[in-house]
Design brief:
globular; Rossmann fold; alpha/beta; single chain
């Protein structure tokens, strides 16, 4: 992934952009690897942000059980490259932790980053981010912010996670989050293993937010359907190979994307496995760069 970034993602559309990862949950592992060196990351999922476990739980007697449970909660992203929603429901809603913060902190730290601060945040109606108390929860607005540094680099970087329902029924009423996305400035969006949410009509608002506000979009086939990328607006590059969606999503096959992959010389090789199928079907990525 690091080699892929160095070769394929450098350039004006991506460099220095805020990395926006809808449906990403706690997957700091992928964004920090695929987009190294960026200073702003925004991840979104349904799970609560959570808190840091109190120190009295981290006794010598309990530490083995605590770490084993947390390690198990990360199994799916380590093995399959994505988090499984049902597994997160059984882990991050009080069973192991009360939210995603511990998992995010573990992944950031194990990516050789030094965590310098954590604060609990919320989005105001105008899209501005302000601090909140850990126990304060605002539906569709609550989040957490992790600040960290890389090695001896004095630059402080920020990873934010927000618990937001991105379905049209909830997002239409969430003017603050929409304003936050629109005010993000230069933005590159990443989609992976989304359960094909943006293929559905009830996720049209987040789809249009991404298409209207992103300088670039990197995604597997579970992201925005191929037909929405107008060649007059977007410069497209395909990677890997696309046959059909895996498993229960196979009915969402994109014949236009399938045809694009069949055109000789269109797709470049992809040297790593990612997304659904976890090596049982070919992996694919699409990079769309805005032309102007």
């Amino acid at each position: 992934m690091g080699a892929f970034y160095a070769k394929e993602l450098r350039g004006d559309a991506v460099a220095g952009a805020t990395v926006f990862y809808p449906f990403g949950g706690p997957d700091a592992l992928t964004v920090l690897t695929l987009f190294p060196g960026h200073t702003q990351y925004v991840l979104v999922g349904l799970e609560p942000a959570g808190t840091i476990p109190p120190i009295h739980r981290m006794t010598k007697k309990d530490l083995g059980d605590e770490l084993a449970a947390l390690r198990q909660s990360l199994d799916s992203v380590m093995i399959r490259s994505f988090f499984i929603t049902r597994q997160m429901d059984r882990t991050f809603r009080g069973q192991v932790t009360d939210g995603l913060l511990p998992a995010l902190m573990v992944l950031v730290a194990r990516m050789n980053q030094t965590i310098t601060g954590v604060r609990w945040i919320r989005i105001e109606d105008d899209g501005k981010v302000v601090e909140r108390k850990p126990e304060e929860k605002v539906a569709g607005r609550s989040g957490v912010e992790i600040r960290f540094r890389t090695g001896g680099d004095p630059t402080e970087r920020t990873l934010r996670y927000f618990s937001v329902n991105l379905g049209d029924g909830k997002l239409a009423e969430n003017a603050g989050f929409q304003a936050f996305v629109r005010s993000a400035g230069k933005m590159v969006t990443y989609f992976k293993a989304t359960s094909y949410m943006t293929h559905r009509k009830e996720f049209s608002i987040i789809r249009e937010l991404v298409l209207s506000n992103s300088r670039a979009v990197l995604q597997d086939d579970s992201g925005i359907p191929f037909r929405y990328f107008d060649p007059g607006t977007w410069q497209l590059q395909l990677y890997g190979d696309y046959t059909q969606p895996y498993g229960s999503f196979r009915y969402l096959i994109q014949k236009d994307l399938q045809q694009a992959y069949k055109t000789p010389g269109t797709a470049k090789p992809l040297d790593f496995k990612i997304g659904y199928g976890y090596s049982r079907i070919p992996s694919n990525l699409l990079l769309a760069r805005r032309k102007s």
